[in-house]
UniProtKB/TrEMBL annotation:
This is Cytochrome c domain-containing protein. The lineage of its organism: Bacteria, Pseudomonadati, Bacteroidota, Cytophagia, Cytophagales. Keywords: Heme, Iron, Membrane, Metal-binding, Transmembrane, Transmembrane helix. The chain crosses the membrane at residues 6-29. Residues 67-158 form the Cytochrome c domain.
Length: 173
C-alpha cells in the first residue's frame, strides 16, 4: 500500500529536475547574448572613451571608459559572476548601484577581505553578511584598479538596464 501512496513522487521529481536544467540553460543562453559593453558604447553613439553609464552616473563618480568596462567585464565574469549579477540577486546581492550605497574606500577593502570587515564589526558589512544567510565571500587578490574596472562594468550594466531599449536594440538578437 505504501508504494501506491508515493508512486507520484518520482515523476514529479523528474519533471522538477528537467525544469531546473531548462532554467539554467536559458539563463546561460541569455548571458551569452548580452551585448559587450564596448559594442554598447559604439552602438549608442557615445565617444570611444565614454559609456552610457558615464553619462548617467552622478557627477561625483569617476568617468567610465570603454577599456575599463571591457577589463571589468572579464574580471567580473571570472571572479564575481558565480555569486553576483549586476541587476539581480543571485547568491549574493545585486551589485548595481553599489557606488551609491557605499564609497569606493569601503568597497575596495570589502572585495579584498570581506571576512575581516565583518569580524571588525563594520555595521553595513555585518548587515549584508546576515541578510545573505552568512554566506562567505572569498577574499580576492585584485588590485584597486581591477576593482574599479569591475565597478565600471557593473555601472554599464546598470545603465543598460535603465536605458531605453532603442539605444542598444541593434546589438540584441
Amino acid at each position: 500500500m505504501r508504494k501506491v501512496e508515493f508512486a507520484w513522487l518520482l515523476p514529479v521529481c523528474v519533471v522538477l529536475i528537467i525544469c531546473a536544467i531548462g532554467a539554467v540553460l536559458l539563463a546561460a543562453v541569455n548571458r551569452l547574448q548580452e551585448p559587450a559593453p564596448a559594442e554598447l558604447a559604439a552602438a549608442s553613439g557615445l565617444s570611444a572613451d565614454s559609456t552610457l553609464a558615464a553619462q548617467l552616473a552622478p557627477a561625483d563618480t569617476v568617468p567610465v571608459d570603454s577599456k575599463a568596462v571591457a577589463a571589468g567585464d572579464a574580471l567580473f565574469k571570472s571572479n564575481c559572476a558565480q555569486c553576483h549579477a549586476a541587476n539581480d540577486v543571485v547568491v549574493g546581492p545585486a551589485l548595481a548601484g553599489i557606488s551609491e550605497r557605499r564609497p569606493l574606500s569601503w568597497i575596495i577593502p570589502w572585495v579584498k577581505n570581506f571576512g575581516k570587515m565583518v569580524a571588525r564589526g563594520d555595521e553595513y558589512a555585518v548587515k549584508i553578511f546576515n541578510q545573505y544567510q552568512k554566506q562567505q565571500m572569498p577574499s580576492f587578490q585584485l588590485s584597486e584598479a581591477e576593482i574599479k574596472d569591475i565597478g565600471a562594468y557593473i555601472e554599464t550594466q546598470r545603465a543598460m538596464a535603465r536605458a531605453p531599449r532603442s539605444q542598444y536594440a541593434a546589438l540584441l538578437p
